[in-house]
Design goal:
Blueprint lengths: L2 H18 L3 H12 L4 H8 L8 H29 L2 H4 L17 H15 L3 E2 L5 E3 H4 L24 E3 L5 H9 L4 E10 L11 E11 L4 H16 L5 E8 L2 E10 L16 E10 L1 H6 L8 E8 H9 L6 H4 L2 H4 L3
Bound molecules: phenylalanine.
Length: 338
């Protein structure tokens, strides 16, 4: 075959193939096809030795020029593709680890709240919710807070316009429920509460409680103690002990604070329980007759108990969390652990 024609044909074919190529990989395949160890041009160069002596120099020269031309064309097309093809398509390394998609999950306070609610649902309680924005009547007056009681002090309560305030506890839900229905009542009410407080390792202006209310005929103090003891064992483990320490709340009489034995040191004393062996988690008591009167119940007919559990106070010893601020700062390094 005519040498010039042969070289022309190869050139045209390569140009056609290069024009069709859209990736570095395809260009590399073209290079291998023509210039690789077993490539078309490489083979032709090897075959020169079989030609007639007088043909060899011309053929060799033309083939070497062709080889250089092909190398140039390949490099040129490579640059064009780099410009047009998006970066990730130029090179995709299938062995690279994939992008991790993080899955959200519940906040430890929500998990703890759900767990507390579960325990009381099993004991026949139902859930009632109340508003965060309350009136003085529901938050204080109906709960037998005297007009000059220190917790009504502007220091403790966030007051809003029009005689409204942010509830300082979940106890107003007791009043709202009793106004609505007659005994027997067995409700719990989880929710957010607000107090003008420092933001430090054991205080936060926003915190969470679960309120409980049980009203019927002949409900006794031992019902209260039994119920809360079952609760403590369900949440902190069956070997947990409870301690009822006399306390004061205007809306319960008698009143108590409940402490649970520290789940970490088993009463030996550690940093979680501030070396006392006990952790305070709730306030409770027998509903005060004045509260029944404010909702139109007959205090001689009904008796009952109420309690207010601090969800942070349950969650912190449960998971060994030593700073309440961690709950509210939303640092993923913290929340991811639960
Ligand atoms: N409301 C009280 C508090 O916030 C707790 C409590 C609830 C006490 C119900 C007795 C009965 O501290």
């Amino acid at each position: 075959m005519n040498l010039k024609k042969e070289i022309e044909d190869i050139k045209n074919e390569i140009s056609r193939e290069l024009n069709l190529s859209t990736s570095k990989k395809e260009i590399e395949n073209i290079r291998i096809k023509y210039l690789g160890r077993k490539g078309i041009i490489t083979q032709k160069l090897k075959n020169i030795k079989h030609l007639k002596d007088e043909e060899k120099p011309l053929y060799g020269k033309e083939l070497n020029i062709l080889k250089l031309t092909i190398e140039e064309e390949i490099a040129k097309r490579g640059q064009e593709i780099t410009k047009t093809v998006k970066e990730e398509e130029q090179f995709f390394d299938w062995t690279m680890p994939g992008d991790r998609r993080w899955l959200g999950h519940l906040h430890p306070l929500t998990t703890t709240m759900d767990e507390i609610v579960e325990v009381f649902l099993r004991m026949g309680f139902t859930v009632e919710l109340g508003p965060d924005v309350e009136t003085d009547f529901y938050n204080f007056e109906a709960l037998n807070f005297p007009k000059n009681h220190p917790s009504r002090d502007i220091q403790d309560t966030f007051y809003l316009e029009n005689n409204l305030l942010l509830r300082t506890h979940t106890s107003p839900v007791q009043i709202r429920v009793m106004e609505k229905i007659k005994p027997p009542i067995r409700i719990i009410s989880p929710g957010r509460c607000y107090r003008v407080d420092n933001f430090d390792s054991s205080h936060s202006p926003v915190f969470h409680q679960v309120e409980g209310l049980y009203v019927d005929e002949n409900v006794s103090l031992s019902d209260l103690i039994g119920t809360l003891d079952i609760f403590a064992k369900a949440v902190f483990g069956s070997s947990t002990r409870t301690k009822f320490v006399p306390h004061f709340f205007p809306f319960t009489e008698p009143s108590a604070e409940v402490l649970v034995s520290c789940p970490f040191c088993k009463e030996k004393g550690c940093s979680t329980c501030k070396h006392t062996g006990w952790i305070e988690i709730l306030g409770c008591g027998m509903v005060h007759p004045a509260v029944y009167r404010s909702v139109g119940y007959d205090p001689d007919k009904y008796s009952g108990f109420a309690f207010g559990l601090g969800i942070e106070r349950v969650c912190m010893p449960k998971y060994g969390i030593n700073d309440m601020r961690l709950f509210f700062e939303n640092d993923l390094r913290f929340t991811k652990q639960f």
